[in-house]
Structures are given as C-alpha cells and as structure tokens.
Write a structure and sequence with these properties.
Blueprint lengths: L24 E8 L4 E9 L4 H8 L2 E4 L4 E5 L2 E2 L6 E7 L2 E2 L14 E8 L29 E5 L5 H11 L3 E4 L9 E6 L6 E4 L10 E6 H9 L14
Parallel strand pairs: 1-8, 9-10, 9-11, 11-13
Antiparallel strand pairs: 1-2, 3-4, 4-5, 6-7, 6-8, 12-13
Helix pairs in contact: 2-3
C-alpha cells in the first residue's frame, strides 16, 4: 500500500521510548468479520498473557497444548474456508503466540475472526484501537509521536489530535518526521482513515503512519470511538 511513504522524507529522529510494568488493567475485545460483530468486551488485569486474558472472559477451545486458539464463543476456525482467529495489541498484529504476549497497563487486546485469503492474509496495523498504538505502543515500547497537516487551516484540528495521542511534534507536512516516530498525517485528499507500517519489513511494533482526511480528522477529534473495532475508516 505505502500511500504515505513518499511524504515521509524522514531526516531527524525523534528520540524516546518507554516500558510499562505490571498492574492496572487492559481491555479485551472479541469480534468477527473485521469488527462487524462484537462478541465480548471486558476489562482484564495487566500482567497476564493474551491467552490468559481471553480464557478469563470467553469460552475458548485450543490446540497444541493450549497455545493455538481453535474457537472462541463457539466460532471455530475453518482452514478450508480460510477463516481463523487473529489478535492485535493496540491495533498492531501480534508477532507471537498469545501465550507469549504479556499485557501491560492500558493495552487493548483485540481478537478478530476473519478471512485470511488473498489480500486479507496480513493486516500489520489497523485503526480500530485508536488512539492506540500512539499511547501505549507495542510490547512495552512507546515511540515518539508526530502529527503533520497539509494546510494551515488544519492546524487547530491537528493540535487537538496531537493532544489526544500524545504528540509533541505538530508541524506542516513539509517538516520531516523522525524515522523512529509514529506519525498521524492529516491531508485534504485522503479518502478515509487508514493505517500502515512505515517500513516494508513488516515487523510488529515498528513505526506506523495513520492517514486521515481533514473532514474525518474533525469527526475523529469529536468522537475517537468512531474508529473502534474497524480495520480502516470511521463509523457513519
């Protein structure tokens, strides 16, 4: 996809990362069909694994010694139909088994049952946990955040969204974004709200870029939950 990479002629690095300890709470969502149907929402304790959090709130059937999810709430994976369960943490597709990922305070753990055929095979990052992963990152690494906007008339909205996602750098689109930062780009012509990795290596937790049209940016600022449970776009 890489729709925004040409805009990110990245020069200066924005330093900083952090790590959260155990304690506190995380959020669990279970959905199907790219968030179209919500099966479970719950608060879960931080410090447990993604598998433990799921087992504590849903009816789960596993295989391979409890390391692979076969079904949740009676919805079974189907290899023939190429449909199965996948999970995200803070909107980032996980890079390890659920028994290996330990949740941190503020994390959003999202299990979704969907197709994995063709272009649906990989979904490295989605918008549905917004304002994540800007706030809590992935696997304890919180990256610096930058907001860029295309026209001066967008500055007020850009500042509002910057406050929401913890961005310290808010500048016109012409100002480069550091290569280690997560970025939110507000542009007139962007047709929807979408997310992608900033590099082609596909590594979970690597820098991301979210693109949003100015009109959708204004809607998102008024109600961030419009993006909830969505791979891209906002609710009507």
């Amino acid at each position: 996809m890489r729709r925004l990479l040409p805009l990110l002629c990245l020069v200066a690095a924005l330093a900083g990362c952090g790590e959260s300890g155990d304690g506190g709470e995380a959020t669990l969502w279970v959905t199907r069909d790219r968030g179209a149907e919500v099966l479970v929402t719950a608060s879960v304790p931080a410090g447990v694994t993604a598998m433990q959090a799921l087992r504590g709130e849903a009816d789960v059937d596993t295989s391979f010694g409890g390391r692979f999810v076969k079904s949740i709430e009676g919805v079974h994976g189907d290899a023939g139909a190429k449909r199965d369960w996948f999970y995200f943490v803070n909107g980032v597709e996980a890079d390890r088994g659920a028994a290996e990922y330990r949740l941190r305070p503020g994390d959003v753990l999202w299990w979704d049952y969907r197709s994995w055929s063709g272009d649906d095979m990989r979904q490295p990052v989605v918008v549905g946990a917004f304002p994540e992963p800007f706030l809590h990152g992935y696997d304890g690494r919180v990256r610096p955040v930058a907001v860029r906007f295309e026209a001066e008339s967008m500055r007020g909205t850009a500042l509002g969204l910057a406050h929401l996602i913890g961005a310290r750098s808010v500048e016109p689109l012409s100002v480069a974004v550091g290569p280690q930062a997560n970025a939110l780009m507000i542009m007139e012509e962007t047709p929807t709200f979408f997310a992608e990795l900033r590099s082609s290596d596909g590594t979970a937790g690597s820098p991301v870029v979210f693109g949003v049209s100015f009109e959708d940016a204004k809607r998102l600022l008024k109600d961030p939950e419009l993006a909830q449970h969505r791979y891209e776009g906002l609710a009507e």
